[in-house]
Amino acid sequence: MTPASPAAKRTIDFRNHHHLLLEWYASHRRDLPWRRTRSPYRILISEIMLQQTQVARVTLYYRDWLRLFPSFRALAAASKRDVLQAWSGLGYNSRALRLQSLARIVADQQRGRLPADTILLQQLPGIGKYTAHALGCFAFGLSLPVVDVNARRILTRLFSKVTAADEMLDEKCAWEIAASILPRDAAYDWNQALMDLGAGTCTAVNPVCDACPFTDRCSSSHLPVLRLRSVRTPRKEPSFHGVPRRIVRGNILKILHAQSREVAELRSSLSVRLRRHELLAVLSAMQRDGLIEVRKLRGRILVSIASS
Ligand code: SF4
Questions:
Q1: Are 151 and 174 in contact (CB under 8 A)?
Q2: Alpha-carbon distances of 154 from 157, 162, 172, 184, rounded to whole Å
């Protein structure tokens, strides 16, 4: 992404415009299950699931997960196998194991409660600045900015005339602006509204400026360049014979959920043909990530889902 001009002012008096987005949100808000709770555990689960998975897919898994693991303690006590099984289909399975490591720390050392402090939150596995602020604002009611990719895109366009649809303020600048314009008494609705606006109106390409509450206030409103898809070459994903590595890993876990397999059996069950050395390399990385166990038995290599 091209960094937008840092000329955008970082201290902005936006008080007269807060009502535009907040009124829009009152009639356009998405009804999402994690917006009906203030439970730090439930909000954390949604945030981790949403990190690399789309909203529609997460809504399919969210309730089942909470039924199986209703608290940090329940998640901490579960077997890895059950955790990975429940996560199966959401992708990027290491997130599930990091979540369980976090649950074990919270259950063992923090009496089953998350700290209401963004610095302490960021010391837990899998929690970066975005997730810490999302928890701070959505679960603990703190007046904090929350800058995901949608919010960053909107802030970029609002305060600078962009020259490409994928132009983005640098991250530090985006957080500073977000903090500067945050309505302190309506932080929750404001942050959720930015996410909704970015998801359906100020989209990456072809934003619907006519339907946007900021249309008369935005520096990039109706710019023709926003209708053009970037010609940037997408970052190449590691893959085998055209199939992304993460898909291969998901395929391996799915097979192993049914039963442990010997390497040759596993190889022939995969939907993509891997050479033996390629499969061994994938298995070795998955073992390092704690997803599977590999053991030798009478000259055979047996692979199974991590159990404890
Ligand atoms: S006016 Fe258009 S470019 Fe500006 S924030 Fe709204 S949708 Fe995005």
A1: yes
A2: 5, 11, 15, 19
Nearest CA among 155, 129, 110 for reference residue 47? 129
Domains of the chain with bracketed CATH: 15-29+144-227 (1.10.1670.10), 39-138 (1.10.340.30), 239-305 (1.10.10.10)
Mean pLDDT of the chain: 93
Contacts of 299 (CB under 8 A, 6+ apart): none
Nearest to 253 by CA among 276, 275, 285: 285
Residue found under tokens 């689960």 = 45
Tokens of 219: 């520096």
Task: Provide the residue count of the chain.
Answer: 308
What are the tens digits of pLDDT across the range 215-241?
999 999 999 999 987 666 667 788 998
201 Cβ closer than 6 Å to some ligand 1 atom: yes
- Spatial separation of the C-alpha atoms in residues 254 and 245, rounded to whole Å: 14
Pick from 215, 223, 225, 227 the residue to mutate for probing ligand 1's pocket: most ligand atoms within 8 Å of its CB: 215
3-state DSSP assignment of residue 1? coil
pTM for this structure?
Answer: 0.89
Q: Is-contact 178 134, C-beta < 8 A?
A: no
Exposure of 34 in the CB half-sphere (CA atoms within 13 A): 26
**Segments of 128-271 assigned E as strands:** 239-240, 243-244, 261-262
* DSSP character at residue 38: -
The Cα 34–Cα 151 span in angstroms is: 19
**Ligand 1 mean position to 24 CA, how many Å?**
13
Residue nearest atom 8 of ligand 1, based on CA coordinates: 202
Phi and psi torsions of 78, nearest 5°: -75, 160
Quick: pLDDT tens for 29-44. 999 999 999 999 999 9
Distance 47 CA to ligand 1 centre (A): 25
